[in-house]
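Translate sequence into structure tokens.
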Amino acid sequence: MPVAFITGSSSGIGRAAALRFAAAGYDVVINFSRSAERAAGVVAELGPGHHRALRGDVSDDVAVRSMTASIIGAYGHLDVLVNNAGTTSATPPDDLDGVDPADWDRVFAVNVRGLFQVTRACAPLLRAARGSVVNVASIVGLRPGPQPLAYAASKAAVVSLTRTLSRVLAPEVRVNAVAPGWIEGEWMERTLGDGYTSLMGRRAARTPMGRNVREADVAESIFALATAHPFMTGETLVIDGGYTATS
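Result follows.
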């Protein structure tokens, strides 16, 4: 059976991607750093298959190497890596003086260094399988948006790393990214606060597809990039219903 490893997959986009790969017959390895109970719930949702959850902070290279060793021991191969683990800070994007260097460093440690460390550890397995990597970036990595500065800068770095890694791992491994727009749900609720309903409604009204992005939309694009498009690498796919293209 093909194997997919999805970081940060106990909720949100990661969970949706895990469900999509499991539905296609993959054995899925999900990753979490804190909530073992929630991760176990996702594994149960995945249904039949040899699925498992691995605890590990992707910013900790020792933990990353341990997770990779567990994958080798359990499966002996890896076909798909989805770098989804991410974090943000609570500082509003216009509050330059409020940016805490420790918060900045933590965001980059998870979103950028973590992505690099996981990809590096999994590279031998992916090369052997002629596999695929999909990184989860964000629309704010490509254009300004209402996200904290550290988060936006880290996602721009993800876009850059996607291009660089596509060269480094070629020709055996394809590396692409998705850049979702405003996604319905918990993440944007935290970001937009009390303005969530009105701002999301305004965004949907200006989107050609008539609604905002959903987690399942992103999961479907991740799956397609990982399993199809055999000559596509180094690209970042915007998933926002046409908002960026037309606004």
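Note: The chain has one domain: 3-182+215-240.
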